[in-house]
Amino acid sequence: MSVPALEVRGLVKHYPGVKALDGVDLVVQQNEVLGLAGENGAGKSTLLKALVGLVAPDAGSIYVRGEPVRLRSVVDAANHGIGMVFQEQSLVPNLTAAENIVLGSEGPAVRRGVYRWEVMRRLAQEQLDKIGSPIDPLARTDSLSFADRQMVEIAKVLRIEERTQHPPVVILDEPTSVLESKEIDTLFAQIRRLREFATVIFVSHRLDEVLDVCDRVSVLRGGQSVGEVATAGAVPRELHRMMIGSTGSDDHYHENAAATVGSEQPRLSVRGLSGTTFQDISFDVAPGEIVSIVGVHGSGREDVCRALFGAEPTTAGEIRMDGKKIDLPSTRAACAAGIGYVPAERKLEGMVGAMSVAENMTLAKQQARCAGPFVAPKKQATLVDSWIRRLSIRTPGRDTAIQRLSGGNQQKVVLARWLVAGDIRLLLLDHPTRGLDIGARSEVYRLMRELAATGVATVLLADSLEEAIGMADRILVMNDGRVATEVACPNGAKPSPLDLVKEMV
Amino acid sequence: MSTAVALKPTQRLTGFMPLIALAALVAALTIADPDFLTQRSLIAVARTAAPLIVLAAGATLVVLCGGIDLSIAALASLSTVFLALWLPDLGGLATPAVILVAATIGAVQGVAHVLLRIPSFIVTLGGMSILSAVALVVSGAGTVRVVDDSTVRWLDLYLAGYVPMSAAMAIIVVALIAVVLKVTPLRSWISATGYSESAARLAGTPVDLVKIGAFCVSGACAGLAAVMLVSRQFSGGPTMADNLLLPAVAAIVVGGTAITGGHGSVWRSLAGALVVTLLRVGLPIVGVPSAYEQILYGAIIVVAVALTLDRSKVSTVK
Amino acid sequence: MTVTSEVVNAPRRQSRRGASFRDAGPPVALIVIFLIFAALSPQFRSTDNVQNIVDAAAVLAVVTCGITFVLMMGSIDLSAAGVMGACALTVSLLVANNRNDNDFGLLGIAVAVLLGCAFGCVSGLALVLLKVPSFMATLGMSAVGLGVATLMFAGVQPNISDTMVKGLAIERFLGFSYLTWIAAVCILVGWLIQRYTRLGRYAFAIGGAEEVLLLSGVKVNPYKVAVFALAGAFYGLGGVMVTSQLGAGLVQAGDGYDFSAITAAVVGGTLLTGGRGGILHSAVGVMLVMVLTNGLVQIGVSPYWQGGVEGLIVVAAVAAAVIPQRRRNQVVK
After folding, report:
1. What number is the ipTM of this complex?
2. What pTM was estimated for this model as a whole?
């Protein structure tokens, strides 16, 4: 066989608190379509970023056609013939399609800073012709449909052909996640066409697609390559098992500590809730119960969660807490109603990095550290120290800036924020273990169990299906902004991930 | 305050920047003119600094929330006109009335910023233009003389014979704001809003109210500064305080309050205001034409902002 | 997957509709306001007054040309007043005047424009090198400009005697003053830059999606500095034009033009967030502001209100542009 188009050996990348890549190996042959599969957090996106020069790996090496390379930027990667179609599209919306296609390497289309629109149109048309797209190159990008814009991106990536004599490597990151089925068919036709003169790496969380379009699939898990499968004759079930792996340690999810779910009145009762991205959502959560909402990217589950915290507007429906109807015009109203929210983006939305552990912990429940309208320093010290002990938060002290703590300890402080006043009734956890290592995850799970045991109701948007199944008493599957089905998830009779996946897509 | 823990090395240096600058300036001026360290000139500095301190202290709150208030000087000018016009009728009540009106105008700008989601510098830039127009119209574009200044003259008196009353008032205002922030949850709320508005909101902080409050206090301070100006000049004028905008902004950023929000304090602005005043008073002493004053303000603002801003927050600066 | 694609499509459809509304809105408003004032005031609709409005718009149009490029990037420029003051003094001291024996004529004008360019350059460098937000950097530069102007003024007003410079404001060609023709040329040049040069297109793109440019390997910083320098050159020319109108160099030559220009650009449909609008939009905005202020004076409103009217319309225009895209939890500084 000829030299591989691209080869990755033992790639390692650390982020504070996590090992995103832990010695990944990958071989991509010329003119093949390689699928890359893995759960959220398996290291897919970090690997891709390393391949286009957006992330500098800590160790390991990348070979392009047998030559070791160090990729410093997207341009650098393009010079080596590697280009990527990004998940969130990377086009300038207010420029024309032609300008986007030639952006950064206009060549003869711009002479001495002056545009030659006709040349530019021709250059862009050449690229669009390669993929047989009928788009008008001089159309403004934001007037094109999403699928058309994706074609523009592919046309843009294919310009790297002009920088090397070799066939390019085109990476497609989750290209189908927001396309309709007809558009997906067109895209797949494009990918097959691309294979004639290029090498393609295709990333998708939808296994049926991966098996459909790829020649070979490489599976990542926990930052490592766990196997390769030729797609001819492969079964989705087998691939899925590789992605998920064994459940690991025996009681990772502390299932023995699962609380008994109260059967009386539901703590949270949602009826017909609708907003911009979700319609007619109805479900109950009992005191002590953990309900997980699962769904693919774009299913609307994050927005439901935020709507329950008053951070997203709703257009219809009602929310009841312990039988009492509540209005949530603002996050403050939600706090007052005993609802707590742990956002997915901890560093941006969860914590105020420059402020101290104590201030972060008491931010939502100021009354817990105040006597009357005044802050009582002693009361605050006792309170914060007791929670630092109870949650075994490792910090030099309560006055340390929270940004100096490790991810797991930061998350515990953010969680503690809702507990300090002892009035929490419902916790909304949006990917509470994102970016945490195994040990920290386990501690967060234990904490969730303890809270459930005290009667706190929990809505969990899990990082992985495995986590959802492990933690939840009941699972709500969302699809296209609606509740597709509800699956009981009791200890000892857990559903299989595949059953859930079927409902998700 | 616990925010001090979060200081990075560069911030630790800028933390002392206003004090170092202050000491260096005093030293330099004393060398240039041995008469500078006399009671008379120090009193003059304190009197000149007072309105500036008050203006800067109020606007600091807005900056701490991550915004900016460019209308303070125009609002102070308008307030001098109001005060001069109302003194004959309202007498002693004119002062609180003016401060109340100024606070309301500040709050209205805050509401416009929060509800209409317009960037604060545009709201206050528009506000500046509107307030100047109102001041021109109300005053007939001329100076309004105060005939009977008995009710505001107390500000022009001396405490214990030496300390100008206006300077004492300015310090009291700064101390009051600082203490209220320190002993209530307000400090946490303001810092959280300034450092990371979305995180603050998702922790249930009343972000909108905090911002409106900051603009309200900023307005009230502009009103008080106007009272001080009238008590010194025995008149009000539609552009009387306009030239205080740059010194006030300079005072805030020289003090080390980050324009990106969160980090800073009103004490820093007090130090910054003294630095700015010393520069203003000192330039003629060392023989530099006062025209350089403006150039200096401009340079100081750019340099001080560059030194104090939170670079982790500004990946793309517009 | 239908719903998700709807989610992605929805805002786009909205913005397209919004764009056409924004593009048609200002010209329609201009016509409507013009007709209203014409109906209210016979003086307003006189040929003389219309000529007046157009002539009076010349300086503002030139300044707005400059600021439009800055706004297109999503930055802002508050330095116009200071730069214009400095350039006004520079030109008045370089052409024939009562303070010195200089008589450089056109060369003097060129030097003033270059000085404006240099001021803009410094603002841009403060932005890209020191990462000082543009409103702060340009506020500082405005003060520097006023200081430089005061230094040059030195207590004695330089009255110009250069007939060429003075004539620009007085002499007419086809019914309009030369200044108006200069403004028209500026608008044309600005439009050509915006449409046909990399500088103009990149300024537009920086406002649209700066991170995409960076990702594509475009070094945006030189373009940012160049845009501020270009804007400065326009302010410099504006300063020269004011000097020609006044017959003297004044520190306050640019007073109020900074804010009026922002008003005109914003009213014309240029978004403060960048990436939308352009020179032609701004030209319409300039006429809107001029018609409005002139019309109000003609129907008997005190001219002192001019700034107030501008303040109100800038806030209203920005709010109108922002409200359709409002989200809960949005961060506005």
Report:
1. 0.86
2. 0.87
